[in-house]
Design goal:
The protein has 334 residues and is an alpha/beta fold. It is 33% helix and 25% strand. α6 links the parallel β4 and β5. Bound molecules: N,N,N-trimethyl-histidine (AVJ).
């Protein structure tokens, strides 16, 4: 089914697909049972993005309050020639968690004759269709897809291309979903897969006015609330859960001490439910903590990058300093 590219005309949309799920990615049931056994209860945001959740996330990116996506796209539009100069010709672009095809297209269009694009994702189906579309639209680009959990390190052994510098593209401030230690591990995993001259282009959302931050995660139209509650629907549908979603209220709070937005689902009455036969209680007012979205200052991001052996060579922000894109390279001396 996943043919290697050999034997096909070069203008044909061809995709090299590798399944590299060792160990297999996320076990939804085990993670939910573990998270519900903790105090406070918590869930991991990786499970937001089933087909329905991904569609709701697309709605979020168009909300007036959610400045993140459009601000990053605006910066990408501004810096194309700088990126092209930094990357040089023949770049190999690697995208862990290949999500928004709009952003990767902006990057590929900005670069001067990129040689290859490789997407990595734990969701093989989504990955394959996204990469197929890129292969179809960029006939001269070599396109690869690696089905793998990139939080376990970037294994690029399948990349046979030696020419051109590798650019790891990690937009969207996805780094913000990780606790500081996890963020360091992730970036350190990128760092280990890199050779001298390779680079990371990474987006980070910035610390700003608390009201503005909270509004971005608690929009008037209730789209983010639907996004949050979709996790409960998934647990009920896929894991035989019996959670009354109508008894849970979406809440976004700014945790200034940890510089993060937290999303919660708060019980409006005592709840008793089961997941796959296991029993759980939630008291009125108790929360299920579903997401952290860490925000950065120029200093906090630079110190994170430095702590794992990167130098920040360039940083680009929008005029209102809402969001920053960074160009990282392995530090000259670690
Ligand atoms: C995809 C992790 C960057 O933290 O802003 C948006 C996810 N959650 N609204 C973010 C999200 C609620 C988003 N990231």
């Amino acid at each position: 089914m996943h043919d290697r590219v050999s034997g096909r005309p070069s203008t044909h949309a061809a995709l090299a697909f590798y399944d590299d799920q060792h160990p297999p990615a996320g076990d939804f049931l085990a993670d939910v049972l573990d998270g519900f056994s903790r105090t406070p209860k918590q869930l991991t945001p990786v499970y937001f993005y089933d087909a329905k959740g991904s569609a709701i996330f697309d709605e979020i990116t168009a909300l007036p309050e959610y400045y993140v996506t459009r601000t990053e796209l605006g910066i990408l539009d501004q810096i194309g020639s700088e990126l092209s100069a930094l990357a040089g010709p023949g770049a190999v672009v690697i995208e862990p968690g290949s999500g928004s095809s709009v952003k990767i297209r902006k990057l590929l269009d900005a670069l001067s004759v990129p040689a290859a694009y490789v997407g990595l994702d734990i969701s093989g189906e989504h990955l394959e269709s996204a990469c197929q579309e890129i292969a179809a639209d960029y006939p001269d680009l070599q396109v690869g897809a690696i089905c793998a959990d990139f939080t376990q390190g970037l294994d690029l052994k399948h990349l046979t291309l030696e020419s051109g510098r590798r650019i790891i593209f990690f937009p969207g401030s996805t780094i913000g979903n990780f606790e500081p230690e996890g963020a360091r591990e992730l970036l350190s995993g990128f760092r280990k897969a890199m050779r001298p001259g390779d680079a990371v282009l990474i987006g980070a959302d910035r610390v700003k006015n608390a009201d503005r931050l909270v509004a971005a995660y608690d929009d008037k139209a209730g789209v983010t609330a639907r996004f949050n509650l979709n996790l409960i629907d998934r647990i009920n549908d896929e894991l035989g859960g019996t959670i009354d979603a109508s008894a849970l209220r979406h809440k976004a709070i700014w945790n200034a001490e940890k510089a993060r937005i937290e999303m919660h689902l708060i019980a409006i009455r005592d709840l008793h439910f089961t997941v796959s036969g296991r029993e759980f209680e939630l008291r009125e007012g108790e929360s299920i903590h579903t997401e952290n979205s860490h925000k950065f200052t120029p200093e906090s991001f630079t110190s994170l990058a430095k702590s794992v052996g990167f130098d920040v060579l360039q940083a680009w922000s929008d005029p209102a300093d809402l969001f920053t894109l960074h160009w990282l390279e392995p530090a000259a001396k670690a």
